[in-house]
Amino acid sequence: MLVSGQQKLDRMRDGRVIMIGAERVEDVTTHPAFKNGAQTIARLYDFKRDPSRRDLMSYEEDGERFSLHWLRCRTREDLQRRMGSLRLMAQATYGLVGRSPDHVAGTVTGLAMNVALLDKLRDGFGRNLLAYYEYARKNDLYLTYAVTPPSGIKSKVIFAGETRDDPVLRVVREDAEGVVLSGMKMLATGAVYADEVWIGNLTAIAPEASAQSITCAIPLNTPGVSFWAREPFGRHRGQEADYPLSHRYDETDSVLVCDEAKVPWSRVFLHDNGEYSRRIYIESPANCYANHQSNVRFHAKMGLIVGLASRVAEANALGKVPAVRELLGRLAALEATIGGLVAGQIEAWENWPEGWATPNRRIMYAALNWCQEHHSEIIDILRTLIGGVPLQMPASIDVMGDPALRDRFERWWGTPSLNAARRLKLYKLAWDLTGSEFAGRHQLYEKFYAGTSQIVRNQSDREAPWELFHGIVDGLIDNVPDGV
After folding, report:
1. CATH of region 286-472, choose from 1.20.140.10, 2.30.30.100, 1.10.10.10, 3.40.50.720
2. Strand 196-199 relative to strand 215-219, pairing
3. Which residues sit opposite 25 in a β-bridge?
4. What angle (nearest 5°) sits at the alpha carbon of residue 254, between those of residues 292 and 244?
């Protein structure tokens, strides 16, 4: 079933508990902090449901149609088709919505390609996962996830003279019906708009902390569940032209808080197994499918950045300056590089697990590392080209509503190549990508969404064919004579 945008908006009014500081948000579709983001997600659902994109965004199986990001690929052609849908979704939001509906779907889809792994850990967990996969794709769910412990908080600390309870989300008890969760988990990006939250672990769990290994999925309105949002960047923004990205593309990040939240056994996919709580994503295509989407999304974002850099250079009358052309050429080369890394994942696809098709894991992890290493540099190049012009713009485009102010603004702020209003919108866009709170959040997001650089590079270390590399060295040495 392909859900419409209106159906998705209706799902957001399900009694979920969203907190902005002390304020409880009653309806994310109408609240000033979230309504524009809610509309962005709704438009994504309508976008992929549009009849003109039927075969680009969905596939048919057993007489039903499903969004293509739920496709368990078996061939290179399947992977190519699935990647095409990821690209269109990313381009629809200029690569600025990282946890769009096709991201966590990749995690669940990848796990559904190796359910035997879960059943090996405990009989029934694989069946639970496969049933959940079928439910999620049938209902076209938008999933978020909370898969890392809260940063900077130790399990046991002395707080205000007393030992504080462990704040990390864990199972506090279980019975015949299910498990009960309490504690915090981060960082549920997009949770205010999602349908359900996937709880798991992308970082290693110590054996003695096996209660934290719980892996499950629950609706956002589950009793005892709340989401504590960071400051939403859109709630104090006025005109869209003043903050065009904050206004529409702030997906919001939240901390998941569980206080005696009950999860039925049918929604539990791993429990009391710290060793495998992370390994299930590595020993199935889950991590690869999800982060392949991240690579595709970053490539779409690069298109916006490179195009904006060129337009800004033109607006500054610097487009023909050799030094500026060199910077633009560097950005273009970087854009082509990530494009090649994305394409290479399909070209060098893997028959793994046996009978399934997965993007090349080595190239995918290399692309993750590349994006993490280069994003700050890319934004700094763009910032250099922009210069100080954003600081010369009026606070708001509302000057256009006052005849006297508009006349002076149009005469003095315009240039031969750009009228004043278009010039203001260009530099407001540039500021929202390089200098605003929204821009600052993206700097953090691109650096840490896949884990720290150490985690990302360790993924490449794990996947590297070290025996092959050693063989090259050893073969050369073996061909060198021992003596005269």
Report:
1. 1.20.140.10
2. antiparallel
3. 18
4. 75
């990205």: which residue's tokens?
245
* pLDDT exceeds cutoff 60 at 155: no
| Residue that has been written with the tokens 């003596």 in this structure | 483
Q: Is the pTM of this model over 0.85?
A: yes
DSSP-derived letter for residue 284 is S
Give pLDDT tens digits for 425-450.
999 999 999 999 999 999 999 999 98
CA distance 384 to 423: 17
Residue positions counted in the chain: 484
| Angle ∠(39,45,46) on CA atoms, nearest 5 | 85
Packing angle of the helix pair 420-434, 403-412 (nearest 10 deg): 80
Helices (H) and strands (E) in the chain, counts: 17, 16
Q: Please tell me the distance from the alpha carbon of residue 112 to that of residue 275, in angstroms, as a whole number.
A: 20
pLDDT for residue 150: 87
Distance (Å, rounded) from C-alpha 213 to C-alpha 203? 10
Strand partners, 58: 67
Domain boundaries, the chain: 286-472
Residue 414 near residue 420, CB atoms below 8 Å: yes
